[in-house]
């Protein structure tokens, strides 16, 4: 990675501010805040997005080389196990896959196939939404959950093919008619990555 920029095509964009050192990234000596960490996580997510669910490093190197710049994901994805995932919404209150449902159960589909270079995955899109939400509202779990439900049930709000199990579990309970706060419980350990974003305030 270049020391002073990350490149998307021919245009340079600001690099993430990184603590620690590697042979190619200078140590960052500036102030570190939760807000900086949040924005750094968005950059890291967008950089790593094409390489998600690659278990063969040779295949990753063949398809993308070094992930030191924003790249668009490609099909076929040789390591994809999306074909083993399943979600059947009970009704419209749980239909969060919409047109993406056609790709579930299909081999070699990239989990983020319709995202562009530099675009964030669904979970980080939600994190950004929550961050923006808190600029105008005090954190109140039920108000945020109403906004969360509105986002995921709005056609076209996101273009990610993969929707993690935490969201599928929540919307299954939502489709069953459970109250919003009740739809987050009980929290299963494998859901913690996404449900923390549903129940905890983000950096403001």
Count every beta strand, where a strand is a DSSP E run of 2 or more residues. Answer: 2
Q: Mind telling me the C-alpha Rg?
A: 18 Å
Largest sheet strand order: 1-2
Helix/strand-derived category reads mainly alpha
* Number of self-contained structural domains: 1
Unreliable segments (pLDDT under 50, ≥5 consecutive)?
Answer: 1-25, 194-204
Strand content: under 5%
Give the number of helices.
6
Overall pLDDT confidence: 82
Proportion of residues in helical segments: 25-40%
Shape type: flat
What does the main sheet amount to? 2 strands, antiparallel
One letter per element, helices H and strands E, the order comes to EEHHHHHH
- Give the termini separation: 30 Å
Task: Kindly summarize this structure in a few lines.
This protein is mainly α and 204 residues long.
What does this structure look like?
The protein has 204 residues and is mostly helical. It has one domain (6-199). Helix content is 33%, strand content 3%. It contains six helices and two strands. It has helices at 34-48, 57-64, 122-133, 141-153, 165-175, 192-199; strands at 6-8, 11-13. Strands 1-2 form a two-stranded antiparallel ribbon. It is flat and about 45 Å long. Residues 1-25 and 194-204 have low confidence and may be disordered.
Notable traits:
two-stranded antiparallel ribbon, single chain, mainly alpha, 33% helix, 6 helices, disordered N terminus
List the helices and strands and how they pair.
Elements: E1 6-8, E2 11-13, H1 34-48, H2 57-64, H3 122-133, H4 141-153, H5 165-175, H6 192-199
Antiparallel strand pairs: 1-2
């Amino acid at each position: 990675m270049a020391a002073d920029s990350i490149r998307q095509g021919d245009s340079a964009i600001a690099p993430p501010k990184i603590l620690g050192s590697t042979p190619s990234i200078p140590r960052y000596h500036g102030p570190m805040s939760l807000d900086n960490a949040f924005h750094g996580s968005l950059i890291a997510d967008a950089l790593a997005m094409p390489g998600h669910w690659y278990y063969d490093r040779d295949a990753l190197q063949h398809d993308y080389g070094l992930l030191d710049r924003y790249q668009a994901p490609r099909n076929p994805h040789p390591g994809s196990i999306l074909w083993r995932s399943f979600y059947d919404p009970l009704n419209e209150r749980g239909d969060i896959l919409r047109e993406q449902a056609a790709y579930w159960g299909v081999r070699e589909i990239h989990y983020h196939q319709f995202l562009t270079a530099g675009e964030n995955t669904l979970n980080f899109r939600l994190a950004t939404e929550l961050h923006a939400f808190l600029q105008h509202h005090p954190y109140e779990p039920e108000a945020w959950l109403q906004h969360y439900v509105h986002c995921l049930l709005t056609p076209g709000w996101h273009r990610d093919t993969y929707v993690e199990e935490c969201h599928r579990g929540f919307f299954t309970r939502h489709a069953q008619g459970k109250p919003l706060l009740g739809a987050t419980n009980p929290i299963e350990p494998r859901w913690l990555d996404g449900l923390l974003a549903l129940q905890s305030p983000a950096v403001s």
